[in-house]
Design a protein that fits this description.
Structural class: alpha/beta
Helix content: 25-40%
Low-confidence stretches: 1-13, 15-36, 129-136, 168-184, 614-622
Distance between the termini: 51 Å
Strand content: 15-25%
Mean pLDDT: 82
Largest sheet: 8 strands, mixed
Shape: globular
Length: about 625
């Protein structure tokens, strides 16, 4: 078989994406291109200054490591100057258009009809015509009145964002477990270890593999070790960015099953201004993992976003909170494939980077799921079966590819009777029993829209330039998967026991890991230290040293996230050869899974008191 060129495959994918968007029903507040959103990225007061500051406070070798500024200080120092924001908002006001200034003061959003947008913000010379697929995202010309105030304009935000949970039909009942990432059953493994909880949770679905219960993976990754020391998340707050609602009674029922007496307080903010969305699996899953892994959390903040790029940008910005609701950790299990983010849409990427940079500079850790589409990173619909599938292009997803977040990939576990890790392999269930299946696999690869290698990833060799994804990984395979409880209508799918089913996905791995970081933040605060903040510089410093790497990570060396065989009926080609696990870092599992207690000790040892006041740092890079 001949391998298609990247250009041809990319063109095919963009055509498929355009066709899918054209045939999709418009979302509330979006009517195709009839009423697009305008995103404007304002020039920063000190271009690049925020990046340099974040580097200093997140680099374990810098004297200012973890000596943060507040969100308010960062916005005042690195956001657009008041005269710039007034200039932009006044210009729109004169044209009868309302604007919203971002919490980071780096961009404004506005809503106006397409024809009016074309008049006020005309397409850049040579941009696609209105009849072209994706024309709403074509680059726009900055009006003369705003030059020097606006760096880039993006029109159109109807880029679909998907959740990263794996819920769907199980493989044939005769499946008897896989063989470490290869073979007829992908990465499916027998249920191992010792489960604990109410009987209903251990039964799962009509499938011979019982799901893992919280005591198993919390023991495996070391969360229970911290629990035994009284580290349960007390004093810590976690924010989650979601697209659906939840029933608190489901979270409480789940917690009771596994011995959690009090579910952490939770509040909801609906970003779009619409009513609170209906309960569904994704949000329920995130909150259940947070509540069992960090049951002492002071608060969980849920930010509900619309199912498009604008929604995730606005929700991520609001997730920074305010002085009374500032999170220690932000967990996001949403994404969209990078090939959609091109032309004028790049302003949305820049807006996200600005939000996450402010989070890092203020000591907030941001963890994002790498996705569940394996080496594709993109979702489509099989025209023959109507089933969701991947698209035939190697890609990763945004916002996991942002250089200011920690991307979490997926694995599967083999446990000892005492629930310690015997083996861990890359999650890849895209090829089951010799037949293409739903392309469920932990995603990984290299970014095409963040082409520069981040400074903290410079020591990773053999993968080419660009932001590599993921950074770390955790349990995500649905077989045997996580025990899951949800009675919402959207969750019902023929459960063996009403409410109880099995779930997987990097959507589960991400809040689980985020909860572990919240436990470490509590330990840091008890030691008189600031929170861990942006994690990647520490993660990679630990990973580059063989001794600390062995102590802090379970190195995943078996399996891959290549889903090309499952897509071969869509396009003639060969396997990507991406992305295989290997010793050390790889773009199938990052550095592997965190051993939470060891990582805690290394994190606390890395902090040193500041030799000078933070105000005198000047924000310059070394």
């Amino acid at each position: 078989m001949k391998k298609l060129s990247l250009f041809l495959v990319t063109s095919l994918v963009l055509a498929l994406i355009g066709a899918s968007a054209a045939g999709a029903a418009p979302k509330q507040g979006h009517t195709g291109l009839a009423n697009p959103k305008v995103a404007m990225l304002l020039e920063l007061q000190h271009p690049g200054g925020l990046n340099r500051f974040v580097r200093r406070v997140s680099d374990p070798t810098d004297p200012l490591y973890r000596h943060y500024s507040t969100v308010e200080q960062l916005v005042a120092r690195y956001g657009a100057k008041p005269k710039v924001t007034r200039r932009v908002t006044d210009w729109f006001t004169r044209h009868g258009v309302r604007t919203t200034l971002s919490p980071t003061h780096t961009f404004v959003t506005a809503e106006l009809p397409t024809r009016r947008a074309d008049r006020l913000l005309p397409p850049a010379p040579g941009a696609a015509t209105a009849s072209s697929a994706g024309a709403g995202l074509r680059p726009r010309t900055v009006p003369a009145a705003l030059r020097g105030a606006v760096a880039r304009v993006s029109v159109g935000s109807d880029l679909p964002v998907h959740t990263d949970d794996a819920i769907g039909p199980a493989p044939a009942a005769e499946a008897e477990g896989g063989t470490k990432g290869k073979g007829n059953y992908g990465s499916i493994l027998f249920h191992t270890g010792t489960a604990s909880g109410c009987a209903a949770a251990e039964s799962g679905e009509e499938f011979p593999l019982e799901p893992f219960t919280p005591n198993q993976y919390l023991t495996a990754y070391g969360d229970t070790t911290l629990h035994s020391r009284g580290l349960t998340g007390k004093g810590e707050r976690v924010a989650v960015v979601e697209q659906g609602g939840f029933k608190r009674s489901d979270i409480e029922a789940y917690d009771r099953c596994f011995g959690i007496k009090k579910t952490p307080p939770t509040s909801v903010e609906v970003i779009t201004g619409a009513k609170r969305p209906a309960a569904e699996d994704e949000t329920t899953l995130d909150l259940e993992q947070l509540s069992v892994a960090a049951p002492g959390l002071d608060h969980i903040y849920v930010y509900e976003a619309s199912e498009d790029i604008e929604g995730i940008v606005l929700a991520a910005g609001n997730a920074l909170g305010n002085p009374g609701s500032r999170p220690n950790v932000i967990s996001i299990s949403l994404g969209l494939c990078e090939p959609q983010v091109h032309g004028g849409a790049l302003a949305w990427r820049d807006a996200l980077d600005g939000i996450f940079a402010v989070a890092g500079g203020s000591g907030i850790s941001v963890l994002v799921s790498s996705g569940d589409q394996g080496s594709s990173g993109c979702r489509g619909v099989d025209t023959e079966t109507g089933a969701e599938t991947g698209l035939p292009i190697q890609a990763v997803s945004l916002p996991s590819s942002s250089p200011y977040v920690t991307a979490v990939g997926g694995t599967n576990l083999s446990l000892t009777k005492s629930n310690h890790i015997h083996d861990e392999i890359v999650w890849n269930d895209s090829w089951i029993d010799g037949k293409p299946g739903i392309p469920w696999s932990g995603a990984g690869g290299v970014s095409i829209i963040s082409p520069r290698t981040p400074w903290w990833q410079a020591g990773v060799h053999g993968f080419g330039p660009g932001r590599k994804v993921p950074d770390i990984a955790a349990l995500a395979d649905r077989y045997p998967g996580y025990a899951f409880y949800c009675t919402a209508a959207a969750c019902k799918g023929g459960e063996k026991i009403p409410g109880w089913s099995v779930v997987g996905g990097t959507s589960a791995a991400t809040p689980l890991t985020a909860a572990g970081i919240a436990l470490i933040d509590q330990a840091a605060e008890q030691s008189g230290q600031p929170d861990l903040g942006f994690l990647n510089p520490l993660i990679y410093q630990v990973g580059y040293d063989a001794k600390t790497r062995k102590a802090a990570f379970f190195d995943v060396t078996t399996g891959d996230d290549d889903i090309w065989p499952a897509l071969s009926k869509l396009v003639v080609g060969q396997p990507y050869g991406c992305c295989s696990a290997r010793p050390g870092y790889d773009w199938a599992s990052g550095w592997g899974s965190l051993k939470i207690p060891a990582f805690e000790q290394l994190a606390l040892a890395a902090y040193k008191p500041a030799p000078m006041p933070v105000a005198k740092s000047g924000g310059s890079a070394r």
